[in-house]
Amino acid sequence: MKISFIGNRTKIPQSLLSLIRETEEATKSYEGKHLIIAIDYSGKFDILQACKSLAKKAKNGLIQVEDIDEGMMDKELMTNCSEFPNPDLLIRTSGEQRISNFFLWQSAYSELYFPNVLWPDFGNAEYLDAFTWYQQRQRRFGRRI
C-alpha cells in the first residue's frame, strides 16, 4: 500500500517528519491501494499554500499568470499525490452538517452525506447506508438539467 501524508508539516517534530519521509519513500512505488493520512490539514491552508506556490512560480517566470487555471491549481494542492484527488462522496459523521475546513477545493462536486452516528460507531452497516444513498444520487457536476 502506498502511504502519503498531507498537511502543514512546519509544526511536526523532526523525529516524526523523518518517519513520515521514510514511510513515503519506502511505499512510493506501490500500486493499487493508497492511504492518505492528513496531519494538521485544513482546506484553507491547502488552498493558501497552492496559491503561494503558483505566485512564486509566476514571479520567477516559470508560468504566466494568465495560464493559471483549475488544472494548474489542482496540481499544487496536497491531494495531487493521489490518482483520484477529488472525492465522489464525502461522509461527515456525528450529525454535523458542515465540512469542517476539509477538502474545500476538492469537494466542489462531492456528494455530501451527513449520518448522525459518531465516527467510532461508523461500521459496515453505516457504510452500506452511505453507499446506498450515494447510488441513488443523480450527479450533475454543476450542470443544469
TrEMBL record:
Pfam families: Prenyltransf. Belongs to the UPP synthase family. This is Alkyl transferase. It comes from the Eukaryota. SUPFAM superfamilies: Undecaprenyl diphosphate synthase. Gene3D superfamilies: Decaprenyl diphosphate synthase-like. Pathway: Protein modification; protein glycosylation. The keyword Transferase applies.
